[in-house]
Amino acid sequence: MGTRVTPYTQPEQESKKRQVARMFDNIAHSYDFLNHFFSLGIDVLWRKRAIKILKAHLKESGTQDNLHIMDMATGTADFAMETMRIGGENLRITGVDISPGMLEVGRKKVERKGWSDSIALIEGDSADLPFNDETFDAYTVAFGVRNFEFLEQGLIEMRRTLRQDGLGIVLEFSKPRYFPLKQIFHFYFHWLMPTMGKLVSKDASAYSYLPESVDAFPEGDQFLSIMEECGYRSCKTIRLTGGIASIYTGIK
Predict the structure, then answer these.
(1) pLDDT, greater one: 196 or 24
(2) CATH number (domain holding residue 137)
(3) Mean pLDDT across the chain, nearest whole number?
(4) pLDDT score recorded for residue 49
(5) Can you name the residues that pair with 169 across neighbouring β-strands?
(6) How many structural domains compose the chain?
(7) CB 126 within 8 A of CB 158
(8) Edge-to-edge strand ranges of the sheet holding 233-240
(9) Cα torsion angle, 134, 50, 126, 68, sign
(10) pTM of the entire predicted model
(11) Phi, psi for 206 (deg, rounded to 5)
(12) How far apart are CA 201 and CA 34, in angstroms?
């Protein structure tokens, strides 16, 4: 599983969940700008790729109308809004996050798009979701699972809310393996990003926590094994942009 890292204090002083919520509340005002800036806009392409995979699965399974999809760790709702591209009749998306500050920004974005009737954003915890069994046709989570305090419990709980044959899609940072991208990524993530993030967000810990949490995350085959242990089947991974990010999929 790797070493547990937290944004601020040690876990015994304050839970990781509470620290992550506080961190995102602190940086909510600058999150979208920094997120797209640091990824050079590539994160938009990663989300589009994930939605393409989701759309293909829904088409194959014959479920294209009256869909209800959850976007876990929705943040400012970028992935939730991207999911609107799936289309179909009566598409509903429920975004869930532990940060009220991020959700407030997300609701304003959704309202500006005129999608408030289709996208609902609620406060909630991945380890204890306020939904009945088999509520959703699929779920997405982008750059969020490494922030879960209890990774396995979150994966099991999200699976519980899926309908049979529903798809879970996880988009998460990973680490390039080969020269020179490996070295460039390390410098960018561990030196440039924390320095610039501190200047713009005014939270010194948030952007030093990011590379630490990526380093500690059980990526690749290790994460697929965890998904399988949590009850998912047909688990697959796709590495993106030389391994800077990965898409993981699993079926209930």
Answers:
(1) 24
(2) 3.40.50.150
(3) 92
(4) 97
(5) 140, 249
(6) 1
(7) yes
(8) 119-123, 92-97, 68-72, 136-142, 162-173, 245-251, 233-240
(9) negative
(10) 0.93
(11) -60, -45
(12) 8
